[in-house]
Structures are given as structure tokens and as C-alpha cells.
Design brief:
single chain; alpha+beta; 6 helices
């Protein structure tokens, strides 16, 4: 009966555990040429309820408003106007790979003047340029701001960031990026986290799927794939198969701590050499207790305040001298410190000291 249970565990649960540690190649690499492009534009938001830019504090708002009105045939030369319902903004977005003309993308709108809120505003037609200076999209639409602002005569309440918002599908692609993916004879896979072991496993997995000589590891962050050797109809078909191949990545031993929140995140490969740890807290308390001294009755004296200071230094009992055996994992050490009642902040200090002593064998990152 016991042998049957063990066989069922190995046959059902063990394959699932092994597959759970494997990641698709598409989640580990970036394909050469398959990338987006950042877009930026300078535009005008109208329709604000008196929360726009002050023209005197933001003269560029008046300039862009004058230019837009002149393009629409309205001559305002020499006119003095001080509207409160317009705001100058920066519009940003990302052109996704293989985006075609007519496709729509999301954009983010952010005020650059002294506007108080973009709630209820509408972005006027704004060209979006890429790094080469060419216009690739045009944005326009109603802004969805992520904050609320309210004010009265003597107080103002702001929740969130009302001076920034988004326009879902607010930009239309007008120009396509000139890139012929179908003519590529080879494709390079760029690892998001360069590692020689992971790159070698990707090379082995691709060659196992397509045959020897298809993939070649160039360095820790690059694997080159020969499209012709895959015997697929096009590079798109080849990458469609490659990106779903499962690979178990190799991660570096790393410990990340956040001092502000006391968060500690560690990998399973972190190891600690034999080391002894002793920890305690030193507390300094200073308390002021002034005493008022009254003069004698019917005298011309004055009340005098005499300072009294009580200073104490307390040494709280520490965790004692704890010895960590050689080769212990950091998770075991953390569990032991938690059992002793060590606070997260003290635990971070202990890890810093262990790293300084050369006993923590991992990359230590403090934020």
C-alpha cells in the first residue's frame, strides 16, 4: 500500500512540481526587432471648470492656444484673454511592435503648468513624435483623471493626482515603423536577466525541439537562432514555436530588503556560512519635568521655573549568542530569528552585519 501511494505521488505530483519550475522562453527573453517605441507630444486641454493654467504663470499655454486658434481661422492678434479652462500638457504613449495604421493606443496626459486639475477636460488633436522626429500617431479625446480636488475659501483637499490622466485608445496610429520581419535570416534572443546557465539551457531546449545547429549561445545575454535551420515557413512561425518552449531559468542568489517597510525578499539559493550572531537594543530616554518655585507669601519675589531632566539608558536583553551552522539557508535563519522575536528592522541590521562578515553568500540589495 505504501509503495502504491509513493508511486501515485511520483506519477501525479512530481511532474507538476517540475513543470512549475519551468518558464516559457517568451517570459525570459526579448526578441530582436520586436520592440515598442516611445511617443511624446505637446498639446492643449480645454473644457476645464476653472482649474486650468494661469496665463501669467504659464505663458506657453497662451502661445499654443493662439497657434491652434489661428490654424482654425480665428485671428486673435493683439487680443487680451485670460481663460481659466485650458491647460498645456505633455502627452506620452508607446507605439507597440507591428502596430498598423488605424490602430489605437492608450496615452497619458500630464499638466506642465500650474493647472489644479484635468478633471472633465478634453485633449485637442495632438501629434505624437518618436525619437526620429517623425509623427507616428495623433491623440485626442476626453481625459480620465485619477484624482479629486475640492477647495473653499480657506482650505483645499486633494486626493490622488488630478493633474494627470489617461485616454484609453486615445491615439490613432498614422505611420508604421518600417521593419520587414519576414526577411530576417536570424533572430537574436536577448535575456532580460543575463545568465550563462540560463542562456545555455535555452540553446539546448531550442536545439532539442528543432535539431542541432538551430540555436547558438553568443554570451550570457544573447542566443542567436537561425531561421532557415528551423525549416519553418517564416520567422513568425519559427518564433511562434520557440516562445512556448519551457526552460528552467537559473537565478542568482539575491537578498532584497526594504528598510522603510521592513520587507525582506530572498531566493531559495541563498546560503550562509558558519557564523555567530548576538543582538540587543540600547534605549536612551530623556524626560523633562520642570518644577515651579513659588516666592514667600507677601514678598516681592517672582515665580521661577527650575528645570529638571531625567535621563536613563536601558539595555534591553538581546537574543543572546546564536550560532548558525555552515551551509544553512537564509530562510532557516529568518525562521529562527522570528522564533526569537526579532523585529524586521533588527533582522535587516543582522543581515547587513552577516554580509559584512562575509558569511552571507548572495547579492545584498538595500532599498
Amino acid at each position: 500500500m505504501k509503495k502504491l501511494i509513493v508511486a501515485l505521488f511520483l506519477g501525479i505530483f512530481l511532474p507538476n512540481i517540475l513543470v512549475a519550475n519551468q518558464i516559457r522562453i517568451k517570459d525570459l527573453v526579448e526578441f530582436d526587432g520586436v520592440r515598442g517605441n516611445d511617443l511624446v507630444g505637446y498639446g492643449l486641454v480645454v473644457g476645464l471648470n476653472g482649474t486650468g493654467d494661469g496665463i501669467r504663470n504659464a505663458p506657453f499655454t497662451e502661445d499654443i492656444m493662439s497657434n491652434i486658434l489661428e490654424r482654425l481661422g480665428v485671428n486673435i492678434t493683439g487680443e487680451q484673454f485670460r481663460p481659466k479652462n485650458v491647460a498645456a500638457v505633455f502627452v506620452t504613449g508607446a507605439l507597440p511592435p507591428f502596430a498598423r495604421s488605424g490602430a489605437k493606443i492608450d496615452v497619458t496626459v500630464s499638466a506642465i503648468g500650474d493647472a489644479k486639475s484635468l478633471l472633465g477636460g478634453t485633449l485637442i488633436m495632438t501629434p505624437l513624435n518618436a525619437a526620429d522626429g517623425q509623427i507616428y500617431a495623433v491623440a485626442q479625446g476626453s481625459i480620465i483623471a485619477g484624482g479629486v480636488a475640492a477647495e473653499g475659501e480657506g482650505a483645499r483637499v486633494v486626493q490622488g493626482v488630478p493633474t494627470s490622466g489617461v485616454i484609453p485608445a486615445g491615439a490613432r496610429v498614422e505611420r508604421e515603423v518600417e521593419f520587414d520581419f519576414g526577411d530576417m535570416t536570424s533572430v537574436r534572443l536577448a535575456l532580460r536577466t543575463p545568465d550563462f546557465t540560463t542562456a545555455g539551457r535555452i540553446e539546448t531546449a531550442i536545439n532539442r525541439s528543432f535539431g542541432r545547429g538551430v540555436a547558438q549561445m553568443l554570451d550570457a545575454g544573447t542566443v542567436e537562432v537561425s531561421v532557415a535551420a528551423t525549416r519553418q515557413r517564416s520567422p513568425a512561425h519559427a518564433l511562434g514555436r520557440i516562445e512556448n518552449i519551457l526552460v528552467e531559468p537559473q537565478r542568482r542568489a539575491r537578498v532584497v530588503v526594504d528598510q522603510r517597510s521592513g520587507t525582506i525578499v530572498m531566493g531559495e539559493d541563498v546560503r550562509i556560512s558558519r557564523v555567530a550572531v548576538s543582538q540587543g537594543n540600547l534605549t536612551l530616554r530623556i524626560q523633562e519635568a520642570p518644577i515651579a518655585v513659588q516666592p514667600n507669601p507677601f514678598s516681592d519675589g517672582e515665580t521661577v521655573v527650575v528645570p529638571r531632566t531625567d535621563a536613563q539608558i536601558e539595555q534591553e536583553p538581546g537574543t543572546g549568542l546564536a550560532e548558525v551552522p555552515n551551509g544553512a539557508s537564509l530562510s532557516e535563519v529568518i525562521a529562527g530569528l522570528n522564533a526569537l522575536g526579532v523585529s524586521p528592522m533588527d533582522m535587516i541590521d543582522i543581515l547587513k552585519s552577516v554580509k559584512a562578515a562575509g558569511a552571507l553568500h548572495a547579492e545584498f540589495i538595500v532599498r
